[in-house]
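Milestone 3.1: sequence recovery, worked example.
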């Protein structure tokens, strides 16, 4: 009986132990290369460390190559972030304000909700900027742990990988000020997208503020 239990335990543990870092990264890169666009819903649980406060954010996102995106935060407050790959906008209806700037300024400002990973070479960025490993205790699939190679980056990442799509299904963004847990759902790979999805025109009466 003890032998049978021991064998069963080995069989249950085998799938989690079978993942190798280089294989997981290769599968992520292959999946990313095959994707031209992705649409998904997201829920973010945010813990502000110094204040000891928690909040939750819900929304929907579309990413499309090259560098196009539309992220709509719907709860608790509405915010729309749009980029056509060259220009970007961040619109806050409640304040009647829209920040407007270039894609490069957007990258430097990091206005995208933390934990959302855009498509298009993100694995190469992870390899370049982080020391990568796999969590050996994760039972739901390979969990990639990314620790920054230089302290100036200021945050670390954990990425739970779906073995169905070989794309991120959950992320954990950790910094000194906050921990952001993001869960992706209703994922559509290569959906039909329109140019209008990635453009924005400020409504009448809205202040346009340059994004520096």
């Amino acid at each position: 009986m003890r032998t049978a239990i021991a064998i069963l335990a080995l069989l249950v543990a085998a799938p989690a132990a079978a993942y190798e870092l280089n294989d997981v990264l290769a599968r992520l890169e292959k999946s990313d290369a095959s994707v031209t666009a992705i649409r998904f819903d997201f829920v973010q649980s945010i813990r502000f460390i110094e204040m000891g406060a928690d909040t939750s954010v819900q929304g929907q996102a579309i990413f499309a190559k090259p560098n196009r995106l539309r992220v709509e935060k719907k709860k608790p407050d509405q915010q729309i972030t749009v980029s056509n790959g060259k220009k970007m906008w961040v619109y806050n209806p409640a304040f009647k304000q829209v920040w407007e700037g270039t894609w490069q300024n957007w990258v430097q400002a990091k206005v995208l909700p933390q934990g959302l990973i855009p498509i298009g070479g993100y694995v190469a960025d992870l390899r370049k900027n982080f020391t990568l490993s796999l969590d050996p205790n994760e039972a739901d699939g390979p969990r990639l742990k990314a620790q920054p190679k230089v302290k100036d980056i200021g945050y670390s990442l954990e990425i739970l990988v779906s073995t169905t799509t070989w794309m991120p299904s959950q992320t954990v963004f950790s910094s000194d000020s906050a921990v952001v847990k993001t869960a992706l759902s209703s994922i559509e790979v290569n959906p039909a997208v329109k140019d209008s999805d990635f453009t924005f025109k400020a409504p009448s009466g809205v202040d346009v503020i340059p994004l520096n």
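The chain is about 20% helix and 45% strand. The two ends are 68 Å apart (CA to CA).
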